[in-house]
Amino acid sequence: MPKFFIDPAALRAGDGGQRQVTIGGADAHHLARVLRAKPGDRISVTDGQGNLYEVELAVVTPETVQGDVLQIGPDQAEPALKITLFQSILKGEKMDWVLQKGTEIGITAFVPILSDRTVARPAPHQFAKKQERWQKIVTAAAKQSGRGLIPTVHPVTPWSAVPRLLTEHFTLVAWEGETTCSLRQALSQREQLTAVQLVIGPEGGFSPEEVEALVHQGALSVSLGPRILRAETAGPLAAGLLLYHYGALEPAPSTFPNNGR
Ligand code: SAH
Asked: Which CATH class is domain 82-245?
């Protein structure tokens, strides 16, 4: 049985004080008609904010499914390491790929940035529309891959605004011109990490001045190896390596072992 995403607003207190959940639309249809769910069945429902609910179904129709919340737990699909990918906007489908693959892999948030050599420069009046489209891609990928959280796509961010966003956490800038520090070396200095910001350049790469400015802000410049990766490859690869390094690619125990889903 797949995991269902609900809007936290779909949760409300029932008569006995117990929390109830209502599922409508395509998910109700899918549960009733395709999965042939029955009252009494238990399903897992996520609120997209990292919480998982075990729900016992009470009413199942193709229009509406209702159930009672039996228990709540942390969604094990969410990695303990929160990765924010600052990705220079890429041309056409490439940006879509990074968002989709990055979401499957486990990135928590995306910040689309405009750096010096960014070729795909949407006009300011298109920013909101782009963000909305990208958010849809990420939302679909989060559902498809069983994430417990729908990653956030932040607004298009000009380069000048990037440094002040980088102050909170450990920041890595992937630079093909880095000749000494590998990702492995950078991480070996950090035993425990809960959040990391990863900065990836556009098709033409970062200028040395841009890398310098980030390093000046406290970012660590890292190499991803002796080959030049396409801009759309670098972010998903680095995210996967980070999650692997911190043990976030292990199979997770089921949050509710008894419902078998
Ligand atoms: N300037 C290069 C290509 C840039 S690759 C050229 O035109 O030849 C696009 C982005 O991917 C870079 O900005 C960097 O963030 C990342 N990247 C690609 N290969 C990399 C490597 N070997 N090490 C670190 N980062 C890399």
From this structure: alpha beta
